[in-house]
Amino acid sequence: MVQPMILPYSLNSLEPYYSAETLNIHYNVLYKNYITNLNNIQTKLQISRGSNDFSNIKCLEKDLSFNGSGVILHELFFNNIGPVLRTQPSLSLLEQIKRDFGSFDAFKNQFTAASKVVEASGWCLLVWVPRFKKLEILQCEKHQNLTLWGCIPLIVLDMWEHSYFLQYKADRSKYIDAFWNILNWNIINKRWE
Asked: 91-192, which class in CATH?
């Protein structure tokens, strides 16, 4: 059974950029629902393996991908934000950002623009692609569509409406601007290393 991660900060510690009410619903209701669903699917898969009955395998595999990816992306998101700290990219990450995007501002502008236009329910990610030896920005629909296999997520921004609507209504721009204030580069630097 997959256990939920424990938030590394209190529910109100991201104020005013991310409200305690939003974080409470996002973490305690929505994220934990993905954990419950994932555990239920894994139990059903175990039963299917034991009985050698795979008549529902298409549905189970699809649900595994959706809920499992939802768990992982939410955990990355919750971990890459934190109380307002003056953090910054490490020198090696900053050099890579400049190499791949031209400048930090160009990277930030592209990430912000990509986040604003994520279609439907999805995510915006900064990822390292080992095969290409470069950083890329991806939009991920649902939790599992439009990815590059083998990429390593460094920054994850949840663009599902539940992650911002209570506080920012339909103003994605304000939510994205606020995100930059609670982005914890210390965690991102560790992922980069």
From this structure: alpha beta
